[in-house]
Amino acid sequence: MKKLVMVGNGMAGVRTIEEILKISQDQFEITIFGQEPYPNYNRIKLSNILQGDTSFEDIIINPLDWYKENNIQLFTGEAAERIDVEGKMIFTDKGRAVEYDELIIATGSNSFILPIPGADKKGVTGFRDIKDCEMMIKSAGEYKKAVVIGGGLLGLEAARGLLNLGMVVDVVHLMPDLMERQLDSVASAMLKKELEAQGMNFLMEKQTVEILGDERVTGLRFKDGSEIEADLVVMAIGIKSNTGFAKNSGIYVNRGIVVNDYMETSAPNVYAAGECAEHREIVYGLVAPLYEQGKVLAGRICGVDVAPYEGSVTGTQLKVAGVDLFSAGEIFEDETTKAIKVHNEFDGIYKKILIRNNLIVGVVLYGDTKDSTKLYRMLTKKEDVSGMTSISILQTECDAGGSDDVASMPNDELICGCNGVTKGAIVDAIQAKGLTTLDQVSHCTNAGRSCGRCKPMVSQILALTLGDKFDAAAAAKISLCGCTHLSRDEVVAEIKAKGLTSVKEVMNVLEWNNEEGCTKCRPALNYYLGMIYMDTYKDDRDSRLVNEKMHANIQKDGKYSVVPRMYGGVTTAADLKKIAEVAEKYDVPLVKLTGGQRIGLFGVKKEDLPSMWEELDMPSGYAYGKTLRTVKTCVGAQFCRYGTQDSMALGIELEKKFERLDTPHKVKMGVSACPRNCSEAGIKDIGFVGIDGGWEIYVAGNGGVDLRPGELLCTVKNQAEVMEMTGAYLQYYRETANYLERTSKWIDRVGLKHVQEVLANEETRKALNSRMDQTLQKYIEPWNEAIQSEEIQDKYYAKHTIMVGSEGK
Ligand SMILES: Cc1cc2nc3c(=O)[nH]c(=O)nc-3n(C[C@H](O)[C@H](O)[C@H](O)COP(=O)(O)OP(=O)(O)OC[C@H]3O[C@@H](n4cnc5c(N)ncnc54)[C@H](O)[C@@H]3O)c2cc1C
Ligand SMILES: NC(=O)c1ccc[n+]([C@@H]2O[C@H](COP(=O)([O-])OP(=O)(O)OC[C@H]3O[C@@H](n4cnc5c(N)ncnc54)[C@H](O)[C@@H]3O)[C@@H](O)[C@H]2O)c1
Ligand code: SF4
Ligand code: FES
Q1: What sequence ranges are listed for the domain NADH-rubredoxin oxidoreductase C-terminal (predicted)?
Q2: Is residue 241 lining ligand 3, measured as CB closer than 6 Å?
Q3: Residue 586 phi/psi, 5° resolution?
Q4: The domain containing residue 99 runs over which residues?
Q5: Ligand 4, pocket-test mutation among 314, 376, 451, most atoms within 8 A of CB
Q6: I want to staple 698 with a disulfide (CB 3.0 to 4.6 A). Which of 311, 581, 710, 801 is the partner?
Q7: Does 466 map to a domain?
Q8: Mean pLDDT, consecutive 10-residue segments, the chain of 809 residues?
Q9: Quick check: pTM over 0.80?
């Protein structure tokens, strides 16, 4: 077997190895060196980690087992330092010397760091790897003010992440327009306006000349002499190919390692792919072209016929919630181009399509990117538009957004831009290999394996291709977390079948690949066990998310909040007095009415929590829990002339019954006594609206980031029926939702109609309510327990204890 060595264990390199293994499993003995101490992970998703959407465990693309299964020898945390191209040897920083027959260099790039005084101070970082990401997350816990230098894709995604982490964020940009390489001035201005509305501050046309501070950064100085404060500086001003070691070994390097159309470098049997490679004077910084390079390189190295790599036209999107943009090809018109432009200021939509010689050469879309796949296809396939009108070019073939969209797409439409996968390739794989799940489709075709944006469309193709055989629940099978290959449903079934009763036991018996579990599976397992063994399970407090573990919301500055329950938003003079006295005695910095109609005390020291709760002598409002949070009520028929029902009485009964109940995610309720809906019941997990002769029950509303109106579940006659239906609904949600799945997402997944059908059956409702009642019996007031237990106080609330863990939201 020939010896194949690869330097660089990143996205482009490992994809190349996957392509090689697809062609031939026994042609090479493979060795990989990676400077980072991890298996190959999805670098793209670092933005999602910073923005709080996913965890480190979830972004591993090839776990260590994959290397073992494929007989690949992997050296992590070890960098190649030199190549002897004559003797075909590579030498590493750990003193290892390894022979090769073929060598692939896939060393990617590093963040470009401004060569200015102070750039090496503590608190200054690029944004390139897990280490940078961890540093930013840690800084956000300790400091307040972040400055991101660079208003490109990376800088804006970093800035959004830092905002999510609670920092105040300034973005310093050199040019007059943000993302000037992808957007024209109009789209750029729209983007800036949206990001300003999200809370980012922009300093445009500013050149940073110095990073200020002693050991740690305290600020920035600009060329115009002005200065700003900063506790954390993130440089996102582009990338620099990692070529040093190739260059020192005599390989021809320009901006990147120069390669031909078969990814061959100037040295024999040495290839390069990815961000370290320069092809026809271009160094690419997006995965799509890098994966194309990997495919060509794999064919070449395996000696199979493969078309040369001739370069790529890239399409970009920004991974920031609330921003919908797409850009591909040229962005500026000139005398040789004709532009179709639509600027709808009212809806915040901008579209510009540039055409030269009847071919689309550039696309900029802002606010509505439905047409992006079609226009990108027309651009890359060089489709002649001479027979078309501007309206037909702009007309979306698929306006509905449902599976009709994919039905009307031609087979050569690109579905996954990152991985170059067309609709036809997905349909063929589903049919030829009998695929039934999204995971299987991703595995076979690579669609969805990178940024993940195309997954909804891949699901639609799966549903369309399978027709009646499509099973939505089975198709969505995703493992619980990186510690296991089992899905949520499989884990729950195994717990029941094998009678597993503790988090540790589940992880042992079901052969978790990480014996301690992770911040994703531990709280989930604790929840599922509690849901299954409703009265006997002993809660594993240390497996809970940190806020639940502490029974208080941890805040930015490491302090906590105290929010006592006020059933239905109703209080008394005596309770108000107690709150005021405690706030005064403990010098609470902020006393504030919360959005859920209660009073919050913010900025409380951890060691003060037990005594404050003791003096308050009120139940915890669970403002931190995956449980019933609040029941917001209007004043209702007792006081309001429009009221038809007693909203306060219902709200109080609901809150008293379901408080402390463990649910997959937080649950909020609202009760209005008439359709004027002063309690905003239409955007709650469960909302109740009084009508003549009864109540309407709305479900799956959400007033947060994913704004969603509630949908009518049913109409009932009286308060007793409300309680019965709510108990059954909540219990069904508890038993079938994934942990951390809000009711809105759950209903979207399982379907309102399905839930209506389940709850229409009286026997089922009874059984659900019986399990609910059994569950509710086990809960006790957590602060009463803490006040009486020295052990709990010592473990969680003593001054010296440090709480670590994932916060959740
Ligand atoms: C936060 C972020 C978000 C992104 N978002 C997107 C996106 O949405 N869409 C998109 O298409 N692209 C995105 N990108 C870009 C994409 O991640 C990169 O294009 C891709 O990772 C490059 O792959 P690569 O293998 O060339 O380099 P890398 O993934 O960087 O891998 C190179 C590896 O080689 C290692 N290495 C370097 N030198 C040596 C040595 N001498 N010896 C051993 N190992 C070495 C490095 O440590 C690294 O692990 C994003 C990048 C970042 C940082
Ligand atoms: N969604 C995505 O596709 C995505 C997301 C993140 C990163 N990436 C990739 O990661 C790589 C790095 O991204 P990036 O945004 O750093 O690179 P970039 O080159 O795309 O953008 C850098 C930006 O920084 C600005 N800049 C340069 N010097 C500056 C200075 N001194 N002060 C202030 N601003 C300055 C530039 O004008 C430019 O807009 C790119 O290859 C990018 O494609 C892609
Ligand atoms: S919802 Fe109707 S009953 Fe309740 S306060 Fe508003 S107007 Fe009055
Ligand atoms: S479009 Fe990025 S993974 Fe498919």
Answers
A1: 316-382
A2: no
A3: -95, 10
A4: 2-108+241-302
A5: 451
A6: 710
A7: yes
A8: 97 97 94 95 92 78 86 94 96 96 98 97 97 94 95 96 93 97 97 95 98 97 97 97 96 98 98 98 96 97 96 92 91 95 92 96 93 90 89 63 66 90 94 84 89 86 85 68 78 93 94 75 94 93 85 79 96 97 96 95 94 96 95 96 96 98 97 97 97 97 87 97 98 94 92 94 96 95 93 83 42
A9: no
